[in-house]
Structure formats: C-alpha cells, structure tokens
Amino acid sequence: MAVINPYQAYRQNQVQTLSQEKLVLMLYDGALRFCRQGLVAMEQNDYAAVSNNLGRAEDILSELMATLNRDVGDIAENLYKLYDFMYRHLVQANVKKSGKMINEVIELLQQLRDTWEEAIKIYQAHDYRTTAGVNWQG
C-alpha cells in the first residue's frame, strides 16, 4: 500500500476541482514560472536547469495545444498556432541559449494570461441566467 503525502493529496484534489477557466490560468502561471526560472538559470550558466525549466514550459504548452478545441473557429486555431510558435521558440531558445527568445515567450504568455484572467472576471461578473430582462430560471 502506497503512502500518500498529505500535501500532494491536497494539491491533486485542488487541481481536480478547479474550473476549466482557472485550470488554464494555472497552466499559464506555471509556464511563466518555468520560463522565468529558465531565464535565471541561463544568466547563471546552469544549462541543465535551463533545459529542465524550458522543457517543463514546453510540456505545458503541449498540454494547452492538446486540449484546445480547434473546431470552434478561427480564434482557437490562431491560439493553437500561437502556442505552437511559443513551443518552437522555447526549443530554439534552449538550443541557441538565447535569453532574448525566452523573454519574447514570457511577454506573449503574460499577455495571454492577463487577457484570460480578465475574461474570467467578465464571465463571472455577468449574470448569464438573465438576458435582456428575461429571466430564464422561471
């Protein structure tokens, strides 16, 4: 019988009960954190840590691409292309040891994250149960 770390069990439960909106926000935050850690490691010439952190950010971008519903239209397709661009840019940043390229991805991720957070706030503030004075609840 495996012993479960209480903190790990708590974190796993926390992630499993998040809304999809907040889960995407959490993925953006994680990708940003790993990119920034990779940048710091690059400044310290710790290339193993650079590869590890950028690889983790790439994994998050891969997850975002894999779970994106591209059938909903142009916005989703363009978002997929942006994720793919960032993924490839991080791979090249790692190969070329380019902090500039990492910063470019950080800037794009930060803009997406901030836009997503704002969209969540707007969604949560809007009462979708009533529209144009019509109460759909009865």
Task: Walk me through this protein's architecture.
The protein is mostly helical and 138 residues long. It has a single domain, classed as Flagellar protein FliS (Four Helix Bundle (Hemerythrin (Met), subunit A)), CATH 1.20.120. The chain is 77% helix and 3% strand. It has helices at 6-16, 20-43, 47-67, 74-96, 99-125; strands at 130-131, 134-135. Strands 1-2 form a two-stranded antiparallel ribbon. Helix 2 (20-43) runs antiparallel to helix 5 (99-125) and helix 4 runs antiparallel to helix 5. Residues 133-138 have low confidence and may be disordered.
Named CATH architecture: Up-down Bundle
Instruction: Compute the number of structural domains.
Output: 1
CATH class: Mainly Alpha
SSE arrangement, N to C: HHHHHEE
CATH topology: Four Helix Bundle (Hemerythrin (Met), subunit A)
Compute the number of helices: 5
Q: Alpha-carbon distance between the termini? A: 52 Å
Roughly how much helix do the residues carry, as a percent range?
over 70%
Which descriptor suits the 3D outline?
A: globular
Number of strands: 2
